[in-house]
Amino acid sequence: MTNPKVCFDLVESPSSFVKVRRHYYLAKQVVVERWQRSRSEQAQENNCGGRLCFLFCALTKCVECSSEASELADIEWDNLGFGLLPTDYMYMMKCSQGGNFSKGELQRFGNIELNPSAGVLNYGQGLFEGLKAYRKEDGNILLFRPEENALRMRQGAERMCMPAPTVDQFVEAVKETVLANKRWVPPPGKGSLYIRPLLMGSGAVLGLAPAPEYTFLIYVSPVGNYFKEGVAPINLIVEHELHRATPGGTGGVKTIGNYAAVLKAQSAAKAKGYSDVLYLDCVHKKYLEEVSSCNIFVVKGNVISTPAIKGTILPGITRKSIIDVARSQGIQKFLDINDSGIKIRKDFLQEPYGSKFSCLIMENVYYLVSTACGCCRANVNNSFGVSCLMFFLMKVEERFVPVDELLDADEVFCTGTAVVVSPVGSITYKGKRVSYGVDGFGAVAQQLYSVLTRLQMGLIDDKMNWTVELS
C-alpha cells in the first residue's frame, strides 16, 4: 500500500498525472494519521485501468485518483464575481400547448435554436427562476428550497398562460443539472453555483396568442457576490417617477419583462454612483415596493418591516426564509442589563441554530446572551451575572411601509437569491441622503445573514428541512 502522504505529494506535483476527486480538500493530515493507525485494515491498493484507487475505510468512501471531470474546474475561485461562466451541461425538455412535459435530457451547454416568431421573442411569454447549490465541507452538495422555486414557476406559468413542469420534474431536473456540472460548484466558502431555470414559449406564433410549444431549460454558472461591494453596505436611490409594476399586472411573478423594465432607472442610478434603485408603488407613490432584483426590509426598534405581497412585489424565497428565521429564532439588539431593571424569570436555552447566542426569558420577553464574549455566565441555579444582553425581536410585519420610515430607520437590508442578505449603507430620496451609521452589517441583518448562510452551506442543523443534499 502506498503511503497516502506520497499520494498527496504526487497530486500537488505539477508533473504528476494523478489528480483526486472532490475528497482531496479533506484535511491531508487526518487521512495520513488514520492510515498510519490502521493501514493494514483500512487501506488497500488496486490497479484500476492504469489509475491508482486508494480506499480509506476511515472515510467510508473510495477516493479515486483519476483525471475524470469530477475534479474542480480550473478557475480562480477566489475572484468569482456575479456573471456567466459557461459550464459543461444544460437541461432541456419540451411540451405542446395544453400538453404535459415529459422526461427531458442533458446536453452540452451552448446556443439553442428559436424561430424568429417564437412567442418568447415576439410577445414576451417567458419566466425564469433562480436558486443556488452549495458545496459542503464533506464534498456533498446542498440545494436550498428548490420546491419553492418549482411552485413559484407554476404560479407564474398560470399567469402567463404556459404549461409548467411538475414540482418533482423541476426538482429532479435541477438535481441532474447540478450533478452533471458538479466540478463547477465552488469549494466551501468560495461562492455558490447559481441555477437558472427558464420556461418560454418557443413555438412559432404570429398574432397575439399562447405559443404552440414550450421549452423548459436549466443552465448553471459559479458565482460570487452579486453587488461589487460584496457584503459591504450598498447605496440605494429611491425612484419616484418610474415604476417597476402596477396593480393587476405581472409584478408578482418572475416574468422576463419585469426585468427589462428596470434597466433605464438602474442604469441612470449606477451612472450617479448608486448600487441600485428602490421603487415605490405607482398609485400613491409613497409606499416601498422592492429593489430592482431583491426585496427590502426596514428595522426600527423591535420591529422588522417588509412590504406586503400584494401582486406588485415578487414573493422572494429568500424573503420568505428570512421572515421564517426571524419569527422562529428571533433577532437581537444590544441592551444594557444594568439599565433595564428587568428581573430574570425563567429559562436558559442553549445556542439556537448554533448561532453563538443563547436565550434568556425575562418577564415574557426573549433575550439573547452572547456565549462568545465571555461576559455572560449562568450558574447551576439558572441565575445570571451579565453585563450585556441582546433581546429577541419577535415582531415581523408584512405591511404597507411608507418611504418616510426610511428616514429614521435603525437598519435597512435587501434579500434575494443572488444577493442573499445585503446591508444598505444609505438611501437617497428626493435629494436627501440618509445613512445608517454602519460599516458592515447591522445587528439584525448580521444575525439573519449568519443563520441563513450557515443553513444554506450545511454548517448547522437544518431544523427547517429546507436543504436537499446531493451526494
TrEMBL record:
It holds the Pfam family Aminotran_4. Transmembrane segments: none annotated. GO terms for molecular function: branched-chain-amino-acid transaminase activity. Its cofactor is pyridoxal 5'-phosphate. One of its GO terms (cellular component) is chloroplast. CDD domains: BCAT_beta_family. One of its GO terms (biological process) is branched-chain amino acid biosynthetic process. PROSITE patterns: AA_TRANSFER_CLASS_4. The keyword Transferase applies. It catalyses: L-isoleucine + 2-oxoglutarate = (S)-3-methyl-2-oxopentanoate + L-glutamate; L-leucine + 2-oxoglutarate = 4-methyl-2-oxopentanoate + L-glutamate; L-valine + 2-oxoglutarate = 3-methyl-2-oxobutanoate + L-glutamate. Belongs to the class-IV pyridoxal-phosphate-dependent aminotransferase family. This is Branched-chain-amino-acid aminotransferase. It comes from Gossypium lobatum. The lineage of its organism: Eukaryota, Viridiplantae, Streptophyta, Embryophyta, Tracheophyta.
